[in-house]
Amino acid sequence: MKIYPVILSGGSGTRLWPLSRAVLPKQLLPLVTDKTMLQETALRVTSLPNRRAGDSGLAGFEVMPPLVVCGNEHRFMVAEQLREIGLPPLGILLEPVGRNTAPAVAVAAQYLLAIDPQALMLVLPADHVITDVAAFHQAIAEAALLAADGALATFGIVPTAPETGYGYIRSGAPVSPGAVGCKVERFVEKPDLATAQSFLAAGNYFWNSGMFMFRAERYLGELGQFQPAMLAACETAVRDGYRDLDFCRLEEKAFAACPSDSIDYAVMEHTAHAVVLPAAIGWSDVGSWSALWEVQAGDANGNVVRGDVYLDGVRNCLVRAERRMVAVLGVQDLIVVETDDAILVAHKDQVQRVKQVVDHLKQAGRSEHVQHRKVYRPWGSYEGIDIGERFQVKRITVNPGGKLSLQMHHHRAEHWVVVSGTAQVTCGEKVTLLTENESTYIPIGMTHRLENPGKLPLHLIEVQSGSYLGEDDIVRLEDVYQRA
């Protein structure tokens, strides 16, 4: 058997604000280790050793490179993060709009069937923490046997507490005598505390992890039975999709017309082939700042700290400093998160109210929920340093070989000063090379381009001046990244 990991890397980034933003959601952030959650997910599953038939009494299988499903705005960051860990994906499918997990898995299944009619899919969200990787690998091997026989297997997390923030799965009888997997009796919505306590005492309820394994053709067959309109829209979106550099774009109109629903509601609650595999793997979906505190090892006082932080008389807190020094004195059970443009201070039992802050920012027409001051682009990044009436200052980094679009601006002029590296500057018909401490001027309306022809990153300071300084004042005439 060939196992094809399918990593779902959607999400808009609200529950872990201010670190997580719409254009930089939590799966693209290094929250627990020095690698991002997407990178950890990809490495965790691709480190699963291939098995020969008969090893440990389980079927033989081969693990293939991952297939990633993500939004259009995250495509270059996803590709770059996989490149950083030396893991080229099988493909990257781009959703023009979010339509929840059932359509995302459907388009992945159709993509895989064109490669392998016997494809066995391992569906994984990109933003989960799993601390017992060996147990996770064992659970995958066991689920592969069930899925190969036609089951739609889901991983039920063995509960360690009466958690009210997760949905539950009630298991029934084993699928066969001595089997690890059990038939699914029903899916249960997030319970209140008393109900969650009764689930824990019963012993046959598991947290719903949102991870699945099944044959691609089996999933599509079940989806067609219960959600034929969804299947038809996904088939059209894949059939009429097209290549864009290293990405596969789904046909926009067909996918936008697709009904939005989760795998649970669309398929798993209706199919007669649902099987739950109990898994004690140290799992968390890191759905809040308090959950992130729980999954990390703290100091002797229970504090989880990252960055330039000073603590005195502090207990059971999470303090994260991204840019500045943060001092915390004489408190307990707090979440303190500092970023370049926002600071969050919350009691650990109030972190679910972070969403209200994001809603406020949206209603006020602000941008702190959308992006950080540092914005990533396929060629590198830029960061706002200062802004005032008719001027703006940015720090720009261009990766080796990176090339901005050939462009012009109607309302602003630009001054560029090279801090380090080599810049190749096109200004009208003139092309020049600039090195450290050299500068150039781009007049309003002048066609221009910035490139890094060197082997080291190019760092420069850009000073914009003019009547309008918005990012939408860019007319792209030519772009190697094929952006509009």
From TrEMBL:
<dbReference type="InterPro" id="IPR001538">
    <property type="entry name" value="Man6P_isomerase-2_C"/>
</dbReference>
<dbReference type="InterPro" id="IPR006375">
    <property type="entry name" value="Man1P_GuaTrfase/Man6P_Isoase"/>
</dbReference>
<dbReference type="GO" id="GO:0004476">
    <property type="term" value="F:mannose-6-phosphate isomerase activity"/>
</dbReference>
<dbReference type="InterPro" id="IPR029044">
    <property type="entry name" value="Nucleotide-diphossugar_trans"/>
</dbReference>
<keyword id="KW-0547">Nucleotide-binding</keyword>
<dbReference type="InterPro" id="IPR049577">
    <property type="entry name" value="GMPP_N"/>
</dbReference>
<dbReference type="InterPro" id="IPR011051">
    <property type="entry name" value="RmlC_Cupin_sf"/>
</dbReference>
<dbReference type="InterPro" id="IPR005835">
    <property type="entry name" value="NTP_transferase_dom"/>
</dbReference>
<protein>
    <recommendedName>
        <fullName>mannose-1-phosphate guanylyltransferase</fullName>
        <ecNumber>2.7.7.13</ecNumber>
    </recommendedName>
</protein>
<feature type="domain" description="Nucleotidyl transferase">
    <location>
        <begin position="5"/>
        <end position="300"/>
    </location>
</feature>
<keyword id="KW-0808">Transferase</keyword>
<dbReference type="InterPro" id="IPR051161">
    <property type="entry name" value="Mannose-6P_isomerase_type2"/>
</dbReference>
<feature type="domain" description="Mannose-6-phosphate isomerase type II C-terminal">
    <location>
        <begin position="365"/>
        <end position="479"/>
    </location>
</feature>
<dbReference type="InterPro" id="IPR014710">
    <property type="entry name" value="RmlC-like_jellyroll"/>
</dbReference>
<dbReference type="InterPro" id="IPR054566">
    <property type="entry name" value="ManC/GMP-like_b-helix"/>
</dbReference>
<dbReference type="GO" id="GO:0004475">
    <property type="term" value="F:mannose-1-phosphate guanylyltransferase (GTP) activity"/>
</dbReference>
<dbReference type="Pfam" id="PF01050">
    <property type="entry name" value="MannoseP_isomer"/>
</dbReference>
<feature type="domain" description="MannoseP isomerase/GMP-like beta-helix">
    <location>
        <begin position="315"/>
        <end position="361"/>
    </location>
</feature>
<dbReference type="Pfam" id="PF00483">
    <property type="entry name" value="NTP_transferase"/>
</dbReference>
<keyword id="KW-0413">Isomerase</keyword>
<keyword id="KW-0342">GTP-binding</keyword>
<dbReference type="Pfam" id="PF22640">
    <property type="entry name" value="ManC_GMP_beta-helix"/>
</dbReference>
<keyword id="KW-0548">Nucleotidyltransferase</keyword>
<comment type="similarity">
    <text>Belongs to the mannose-6-phosphate isomerase type 2 family.</text>
</comment>
